[in-house]
Every structure is written in C-alpha cells, then in structure tokens.
Amino acid sequence: MSGVVAYQDESTPLKGGRGHANLVSKCKLCGRENNLDILQDSIQPYCADNTEEFRTMVVFECRGVEPVDFSPRVGFVAEGAESGLKFDEVELTEGEWMDYDENAQNPVGITELEHRFVKA
C-alpha cells in the first residue's frame, strides 16, 4: 500500500481496542485496517553539525503500510546554533525555511532537504 503520510500529533484508536496509531488507513480492496505509529521516544534533533550525513530522526512502526515519500509541512522547531534563539513555528511546506536570528544577527535557514526510509 502506498500513499501520503501526514503526521498527526494525536493518535487514532485502532479497531478492536488494539491501541492507537498516528495514521490509520483502511484498504479499499480487502477492508483490512493498516496503521503507522511514530515511536515518540525515537524522535531525535538534526543539528547543523550533522549536515554532511544522514541521521535517524524518527522511527515508525508500520503495519500494512510502507512510507514512500516525505513531504515536510508544519510542526517543526529550530534553534539558532550560535545564539540558542528558538524558532517555534518552522514551516517547511515549500521545502525550505528562512528567518533572521536577532540575537546572533545572522540569517538562518533550512534548505536542500533530503530524506530516505530505511527498513529495520
């Protein structure tokens, strides 16, 4: 099954009281309920020091679904590497983000986003 996965900060109850997941999808052909859950304790920051390498940022538990693409949107936060200034509403809908760090008096940004999924 392929499709677009949209992150939900909330989890949806699974059929039959089997727990919760961030994405629940029912197959139109067989009627099976499939799900993807973000393992909250796996979420890791990506730092400016990591820009030359891929790093694990999040782990998904997938049952019946397989992520094939990542489309960053909203819900990201950033912190100025030099000043520690927090940017709470980083929107990556256009694939990049730019702002100005008043404390460090430097432009800041996120550009050239790349991703890959690795099966465990």
Automatic annotation (TrEMBL):
What the entry lists under InterPro entries is as follows: CXXC_Zn-binding_euk
Q: Which GO terms describe its molecular function?
A: zinc ion binding
Question: This protein's superkingdom?
Answer: Eukaryota
Residue span of the signal peptide, if any? none
What UniProt keywords are attached to this protein's entry?
Metal-binding, Zinc
What PANTHER family does this protein map onto? CXXC MOTIF CONTAINING ZINC BINDING PROTEIN (PTHR12857)
Family according to the record? Belongs to the UPF0587 family.
Identify this protein by name: CXXC motif containing zinc binding protein
